[in-house]
Amino acid sequence: MKIQVLGSGCKGCEALYERVKKVANEVSPDLEVEYITDITKLVELGAMSSPVFAINDTIITAGKLPDEEEIKSVIQEHL
Fold first, then answer.
1. How distant, in Å, are the alpha carbons of 43, 44, 62 from that of 18?
2. What is the pLDDT of residue 50?
3. Cβ atoms of residues 60 and 53 within 8 Å
4. Phi first, then psi: what are they for 28, rounded to 5°?
5. What confidence tens digit (pLDDT) does each residue in 35-52 have?
6. Which of 30, 32, 42, 60 is deepest in the core (most CB within 10 A)?
7. Domains in the chain, number
């Protein structure tokens, strides 16, 4: 499973990355979270706002900071 956080490097993007990384580690220590600040990747995914939380190149959320329970639920659905 490929878990990604994409954004411009702003505080909201960094906060989402830290939150997703924490939750992913709780779900399974083997999961890795990639933090991408390349705006072209955002465009490739079709995101109109950031930060973006994506799994396997599919946008889960964009432009918001989901809570830990929402992140956990989505990760578990994709396992």
1. 22, 23, 16
2. 94
3. yes
4. -160, 120
5. 999 999 999 999 989 999
6. 42
7. 1
Q: Are 27 and 71 in contact (CB under 8 A)?
A: no
Per-residue burial over 3-30, b if 16 or more Cβ lie within 10 Å, else e, is: bbbbbeeeeebeebbebbbebbeebeee
Tens of pLDDT, residues 7-20:
999 999 999 999 99
Cβ–Cβ under 8 Å, residues 6 and 50: yes
Look up the domain containing 73 and give its range: 3-78
CA atoms within a 13 Å half-sphere pointing along the CA-CB vector of 52: 27
Query: How many whole angstroms separate alpha carbon 74 and alpha carbon 16?
Result: 14
CATH number at residue 13: 3.40.30.10
d(CA 46, CA 41): 9
> Which helix or strand (DSSP H or E) is residue 58 part of?
strand 58-62
